[in-house]
Amino acid sequence: MPELPEVETMRRGLLPVVGATIEEAALPPCRLRPISWRPTFAEFRRRVRGRRIVEVGRRGKRVLLQLCDDSLIVIEPRMTGLVLLADPPGEEHLRLRLRLIPEGGGEGPRELLFWDRRGLGTIRLLAAEEIEGVLGSARLGPDALAIDAAMLRERLGGSRRAIKVALLDQRAAAGIGNLYAAEILFTAGVDPRARCDRLTGAQWERIAAATHAILNDAILHEGSTLSDGTYRNALNDPGSYQNHHRVYDRAGERCRRCEAATIERIVQAQRATFFCPGCQTRRGRHRSVP
Question: What range defines the domain where residue 112 resides?
Fold first, then answer.
């Protein structure tokens, strides 16, 4: 967390900075665990000063700021990072402050901030010739919003891994994380423990369709702000998709679809998985989403 819906929400919230020039990059005082920089912050600062932001993009779970010299600022929030245009949740965990001059000197954001409570996030500045090696197809698969059943089956269909674990592989589909993998498989009616190489064509079709439906719906609701309250959009407001979760973090509660089974929690690859044993079976039976 954040996953694709949260990072896409951040990207959309940052669009007002397009056209702005980076006047200065400042490293706020922070006594906590430092985030990862590449290159060093001093080199980053030297190279971004005076550069204009020409595009705000996203690759999987990363926010991309395209600069006028074809270099790229890549911000990966990881567990608790936020990219903001408004005041952060607190100054203590502020990791980067970009001072901006709006296009034409007019109205627009004057700052872009990166805040990270746990310090697990990363910021990279890539020259044009470095971008493919870091963000290209050898490192990241197709975006989860664009992937189809044939692509998923081609990339994962020969794997002996459990489908829930495999969906977290960013080389297969970029952007899906633990929360949305559970929601996708519930919507598709597929047991998270089922092996990829034993799934049917119909199951792959349902997984692909559920991927698009769940991710787009989560974006519509500006992502999920969980009980710790960490995730916020670019204006420091919470998302609301957590109110629509079907299985995630609902262990012990009655399934809202079948109303017969109880949501279970298991651990797969050291990550919590939530599912309904009544709606998600290894035998491929599927109950339609209401």
Answer: 4-135
